[in-house]
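Justification of resources, computational component.

The compute hours requested in this renewal are based largely on the per-chain cost of generating structure records like the one below. Each record pairs the submitted sequence with a full C-alpha cell output. That output is archived, and it is also reused by downstream analysis tasks.
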Amino acid sequence: MPRDDVVLVEIRGDLDQHTVPRARKFLSVVTTTATRHLVVDLADVRILDPSGLALLITAEGETGGIHGSLHLLGVIGNHPVERPLTRVGLTGRVSFAPMGEGLR
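The structure output for this chain reads:
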C-alpha cells in the first residue's frame, strides 16, 4: 500500500555534472510535501561523479530544499556506485538494500 510520507525515485544512467542540476530540482519538488523518507534507487546508475556524490550528501543532510530521511537501493554490488559512496563515508550514514531487494 502506498504511503504519503515516502517518495521513491529511480535514477538511471549517469548521475554527473550534466544530470545533477535536473535531479536536484526534481528531488526538491517531489519532497516539498510531508516527506519523511526519500528512497533513491541507484541500481541503474553507471557513473556517479563528485557532483552526484554531492547531491546525495545534500539529500542525506536534508539541505538544499531536499527533505526526507535518505534511503538508497541498488548500491550493494553496484561497484560504480558503491565504491565512491564508501570512499566518502556515506555508507555508514544511510540505509541500504542489496540490488533487487527492498529496504529492511
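The chain has a mean pLDDT of 88. The first strand starts at residue 6 and ends at 15.
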